[in-house]
Task: inverse folding
């Protein structure tokens, strides 16, 4: 496959799969007709939108064509998006995909966040998490899978945004089909009215056209009639050559509000009917050590402080409610408390790493749980001409989204029983609803979750700890409260990307080929394949996991296990290349195993972009890394200048193959950001433990990369046509740290095996 | 009573003079474009102008605004609602991701360009390195500043799509 190929081969591949997806979608829907399925990979035959009509089609003259799209009397097409917008651009790109299949006029397309309602579960996203192997399964089995995953999705409240999945699951399997189905229904309605064959009606820019009779009409004229049309069970999807919006860098619809300060994030929530001056604010403090409780508190000083309304010992945390956040936080700062003893034997960072190393030592050369195995790694190592041993480590990390954790809640009695409304930034609105229901002892149906834009998330907002806290405070007060965490609380009392240690024994044959690879580490969460060096052809491989206790609670952090494993694996491969006396990029190319045309493509592209073989000056070096994650293959080369002692990053070149990119500029923005995220962790990211608590507290000691340290970044997109397509949000992150470590080695001869790097040059 | 102007509007407020301007603006005046990020002047999300100078409103007490002019992101556009050159460049370069830090970024960039209409890369580094963007949009912020300054041409919607073909 040639680079940046959008030509015939890519088109052909895309076409055949698209046809299969649509068939799968509607076979599934058919099987489940009459069941609870509304979306059924897009839409339900017969189109009974039921109670949803009232929630999402409230305006005069608005008709709901199906649950993912509505058309107004003004011919505005509204794409109803079941994913949240946290900066990844999914709202716009999903709308592009739907609008393209609908032949909508992009200038008249608007985006609406789908309400937190079970009808908007993203069943294909759920499916990708639970059983990715079914995503491209044979046709005959798929109706069963569709029904199964719709049910699983409902049970699991799977209205989820994560896993770099929105475009490649909901976009491909639902939004496009919804757009195509809606278009066909509009055509059907016009054909009936005009008395002409549907096949003679064409569509363009939200207009129905019958050239034979000269008739034309805006979609809005037939919106009501279209809703009565039977749903075609397999609308044809567009061939890539006919795309008018997909594959184009349409500007994001959320950006204008964001440059005017008019975009509402969770923290900006206003409660309808509640005057600004009447809203109360809660500042909260959890015990410093995870898993402990507040046993007593002394709040005497806080009681008389300005604006203080209530001081609550909630057991698992303390809350001060006041007339403003600042007053609440000032009062909270004066409260002293005693906490229960922690049962965790781990008190310090050293304790945590000792626990990892103990587990690894105990497992030895062949113990632990086998994650991957091939050949006989132990004996191949014993016989190897050159032996390599290396241990790498990575620290705990906080997500640190710019919008601190917050949640506004109102729990109240009404004539209709107890009700709760929640306003919060969340990646999982239905799970937030369930968490609130559990905490309040209420039914899901009595809880409404309002979820505006997210000021960053990176996995943090997949958790509902803060939702539970806010509704408990709101239940205790009986009046609405906006709970805001201080940055210190956000940094110290969160959930974390786990620390880990990974140990390798590698053996090279006389020719320098890596023939033994024996690796053990302790943290395996998700995705399962992250620890497996599957892209390389290594004759004898053993990858093992030794269980070790983790002092801080786990949560998914941008790219999840790839964030550590990318560093471990791609550093070790680099060490093997150096031991073999080989060029690290050539070495990787020569090691690639089966089905790695895309990997070869990105490595060759990034070599070209970086002018890899050109000599650099003394103290300047290039490092490369390649990681396949979330369906996208990415290679990055970093150029670093070590002449002033510490690493000064000059350039990053990235080549990414996601199969087909729906919005190139948006994709590049995601990769650029993913690289900065990875480099921030590589240079500075470290959460340490002292007395069982997190030591770092704010941006002065949990540093972020800033403008003056950020290198130039160039991203190349390779549209190889591979399907299913890959994600954008996470794949930029994993190669960044190893590429930087490898560059530092090339420039200085210093091999960094521990993250983060900056302090090792202080 | 503390008297000041905000976005050109004369205002007097009976509020705690020690309260940071950030919370006054957000919770008393209901203008939520200015964001809380860290509370210790370390991230720049809360940047507003005080008599035209960028300040971290999370760490600047209301008393500092007595008799002075506060400008927030809501006051950056022209009176007719026309977006400023900086805001327009933020759109043409498609800068924001989550967007939470961007009010502060725009306030810092606006002050930079008023004082220095043709900033060098070093000037941009110096003026902008107090503003954190966790989404990592620094490359685009730099480019947008150059576009707003007229040093570079704005990216048209069509150009962006051609380059990926």
Result:
């Amino acid at each position: 496959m040639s680079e940046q190929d959008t030509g015939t081969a890519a088109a052909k591949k895309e076409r055949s799969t698209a046809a299969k997806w649509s068939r799968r979608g509607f076979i599934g829907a058919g099987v489940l007709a009459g069941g609870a399925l509304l979306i059924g990979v897009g839409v339900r035959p017969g189109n009974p939108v039921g109670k949803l009509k009232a929630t999402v089609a409230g305006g005069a003259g608005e008709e709901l064509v199906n649950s993912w799209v509505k058309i107004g009397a003004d011919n505005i097409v509204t794409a109803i998006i079941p994913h949240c917008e946290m900066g990844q651009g999914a709202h716009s790109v999903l709308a592009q995909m739907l609008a393209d299949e609908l032949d909508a006029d992009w200038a008249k397309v608007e985006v609406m966040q789908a309400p937190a309602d079970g009808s908007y579960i993203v069943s294909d996203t759920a499916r990708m998490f639970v059983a990715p192997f079914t995503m491209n399964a044979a046709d005959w089995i798929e109706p069963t899978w569709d029904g199964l995953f719709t049910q699983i999705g409902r049970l699991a409240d799977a209205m989820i945004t994560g896993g770099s999945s929105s475009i490649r699951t909901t976009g491909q399997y639902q939004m496009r089909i919804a757009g195509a189905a809606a278009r066909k229904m509009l055509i059907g309605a016009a054909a009936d009215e005009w008395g002409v064959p549907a096949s003679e009606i064409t569509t363009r820019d939200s207009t129905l056209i019958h050239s034979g009779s000269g008739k034309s009409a805006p979609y809005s004229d037939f919106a009501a009639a279209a809703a009565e049309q039977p749903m075609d069970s397999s609308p044809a999807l567009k061939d890539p050559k006919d795309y008018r919006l997909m594959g184009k860098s349409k500007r994001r619809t959320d950006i204008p509000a964001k440059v005017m300060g008019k975009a509402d994030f969770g923290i900006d929530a206003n409660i309808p009917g509640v005057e600004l001056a009447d809203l109360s604010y809660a500042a909260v403090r959890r015990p410093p050590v995870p898993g402990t409780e507040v046993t007593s508190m002394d709040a005497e000083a806080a009681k008389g402080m300005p604006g203080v309304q209530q001081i609550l010992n909630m057991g698992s945390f303390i809350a001060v409610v006041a007339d403003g956040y600042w007053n609440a936080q000032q009062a909270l700062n004066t409260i002293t408390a005693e906490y229960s003893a922690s049962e965790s034997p781990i008190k310090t960072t050293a304790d945590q790493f000792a626990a990892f190393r103990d587990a690894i030592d105990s497992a030895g050369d062949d113990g632990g749980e086998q994650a991957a195995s091939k050949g006989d790694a132990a004996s191949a190592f014993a016989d190897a001409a050159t032996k390599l041993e290396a241990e790498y480590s990575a620290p705990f990390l906080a997500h640190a989204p710019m919008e601190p954790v917050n949640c506004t809640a109102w729990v109240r009695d009404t004539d209709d029983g107890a009700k709760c409304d929640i306003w919060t930034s969340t990646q999982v609105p239905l799970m937030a609803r369930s968490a609130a229901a559990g905490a309040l002892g209420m039914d899901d149906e009595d809880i409404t979750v309002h979820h505006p834009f997210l000021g960053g998330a990176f996995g943090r907002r997949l958790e509902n700890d803060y939702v539970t806290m806010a509704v408990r405070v709101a239940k205790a007060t009986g009046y609405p409260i906006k709970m805001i965490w201080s940055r210190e609380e956000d940094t110290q009392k969160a959930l974390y990307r786990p620390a880990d240690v990974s140990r390798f024994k590698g053996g090279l044959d006389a020719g320098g080929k890596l023939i033994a690879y024996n690796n053990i580490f302790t943290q395996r969460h998700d995705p399962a394949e992250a620890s497996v060096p599957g892209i390389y052809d290594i004759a004898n491989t053993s990858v093992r996991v030794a269980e070790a206790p983790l002092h801080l609670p786990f949560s998914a952090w941008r790219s999840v296990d790839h964030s550590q494993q990318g560093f471990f694996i791609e550093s070790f491969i680099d060490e093997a290349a150096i031991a073999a006396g080989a060029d690290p990029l050539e070495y990787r190319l020569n090691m690639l195993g089966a089905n790695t045309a895309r990997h070869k493509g990105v490595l060759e592209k990034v070599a070209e972009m970086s002018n890899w073989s050109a000599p650099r000056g003394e103290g300047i070096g290039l490092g490369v890394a390649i990681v396949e994650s979330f369906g996208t293959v990415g290679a990055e080369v970093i150029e670093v200048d070590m002449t002033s002692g510490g690493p000064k990053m000059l350039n990053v070149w990235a080549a990414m193959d996601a199969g087909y990119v729906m919005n190139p500029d948006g994709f590049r923005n995601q990769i650029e950001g993913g690289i900065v995220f990875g480099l921030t962790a590589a240079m500075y990211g470290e959460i340490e433990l002292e007395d069982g608590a997190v030591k770092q507290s704010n941006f002065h000691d949990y540093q972020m990369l800033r403008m003056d340290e950020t290198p130039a970044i160039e991203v190349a997109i390779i549209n190889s046509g591979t399907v299913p397509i890959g994600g954008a949000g996470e794949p930029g992150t994993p190669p960044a740290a190893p590429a930087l470590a490898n560059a530092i080695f090339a420039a200085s001869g210093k091999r960094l095996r521990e993250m983060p790097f900056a302090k090792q040059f202080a | 009573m503390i008297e000041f102007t905000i976005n050109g509007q004369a205002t007097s407020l009976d509020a705690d003079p020690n309260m940071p301007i950030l919370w006054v603006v957000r919770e008393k005046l209901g203008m939520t474009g200015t964001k809380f990020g860290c509370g210790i002047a370390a991230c720049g999300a809360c940047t507003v102008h005080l008599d035209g100078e960028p300040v971290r409103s999370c760490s600047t007490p209301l008393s500092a605004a007595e008799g002075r002019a506060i400008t927030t992101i809501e006051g950056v556009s022209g009176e007719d609602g026309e977006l400023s050159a900086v805001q327009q460049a933020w759109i043409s370069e498609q800068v924001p991701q989550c967007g939470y830090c961007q009010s502060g970024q725009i306030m810092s960039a606006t002050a930079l360009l008023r004082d220095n209409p043709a900033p060098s890369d070093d000037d941009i580094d110096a003026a902008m390195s107090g503003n954190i963007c966790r989404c990592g949009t620094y490359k685009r912020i730099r480019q947008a500043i150059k576009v707003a300054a007229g040093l570079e041409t704005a990216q048209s919607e069509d150009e962006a799509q051609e380059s990926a073909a």
